[in-house]
């Protein structure tokens, strides 16, 4: 297993929005995320640690204003979140400890019923064609082949 870590250099390279979301448990404004409408095949990794998180195969349009996935491709940490007067389940990267978003039980029933509602600012997209070269070849079987 690769050791994906949060390093001071990676944190220093974040934009103000990426820092606010991943390090201060922020939320980007709905409909504003750069990856919201991305339909290309590939994987989504933690912007800080590079940890593999979600596959394009599991991404769907939920209408909530953030990228939505039916499941993660690797372990994510799920924590009880009682902020803002609500009880929710926060999703964090398991190794990098970045705040990613929240998981809800209103996803597609035929795909498990979960909706991982994830901030674009917490993610870096790796196109399928670049996955092996960037060290994510082990995850190719998780991503649909566009041919």
Descriptive notes:
This protein is α+β, with helices and mostly antiparallel strands and 147 residues long. 12% of the residues lie in helices and 27% in strands. The protein is built from three helices and nine strands. A six-stranded antiparallel sheet has the order 3-4-8-7-6-5. Strands 2-1-9 form a three-stranded antiparallel sheet. The radius of gyration is 14 Å and the shape is globular. The protein starts with 7 loop residues before the first helix and ends in a 16-residue tail after the last helix. The model has no long low-confidence stretch (mean pLDDT 94).
Chain-wise SSE layout:
Blueprint: H1 8-12, H2 16-24, E1 42-46, E2 52-55, E3 59-60, E4 68-69, E5 76-81, E6 88-93, E7 99-104, E8 115-118, E9 123-127, H3 128-131
Antiparallel strand pairs: 1-2, 1-9, 3-4, 4-8, 5-6, 6-7, 7-8
Could you list some keywords that capture this structure?
147 residues; alpha+beta; 6-stranded antiparallel β-sheet; 3-stranded antiparallel β-sheet; 3 helices; 9 strands; globular
- Summarize model confidence as the mean pLDDT: 94
Helix and strand element order: HHEEEEEEEEEH
Tell me the radius of gyration: 14 Å
The computed structural class is alpha+beta
Q: What distance separates the N and C termini?
A: 29 Å
Strand order of the largest sheet: 3-4-8-7-6-5
Query: How much beta, percentage-wise?
Result: 25-35%
Q: In terms of per-residue confidence, which ranges show pLDDT below 50 for 5 or more consecutive residues?
A: none
Report the total helices: 3
Helix content: 10-25%
Described by strand count, sense and barrel closure, the largest sheet is: 6 strands, antiparallel
Record field, number of beta strands: 9
Q: In one word, what is the shape?
A: globular
């Amino acid at each position: 297993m690769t050791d994906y870590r949060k390093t001071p250099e990676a944190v220093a390279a974040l934009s103000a929005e990426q820092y606010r979301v991943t390090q201060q448990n922020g939320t980007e404004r709905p409909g504003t995320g750069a990856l919201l409408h991305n339909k290309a095949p590939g994987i989504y990794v933690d912007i800080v640690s590079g940890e593999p998180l979600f596959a394009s195969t599991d991404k769907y349009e939920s209408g909530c204003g953030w990228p939505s996935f039916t499941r993660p491709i690797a372990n994510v940490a799920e924590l009880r979140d009682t902020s803002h007067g609500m009880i929710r389940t926060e999703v964090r990267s398991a190794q990098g400890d970045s705040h990613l978003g929240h998981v809800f039980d209103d996803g597609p029933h035929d795909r498990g019923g979960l909706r991982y509602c994830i901030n674009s600012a917490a993610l870096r997209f790796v196109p399928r064609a670049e996955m092996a070269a960037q060290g994510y070849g082990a995850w190719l079987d998780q991503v649909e082949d566009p041919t």
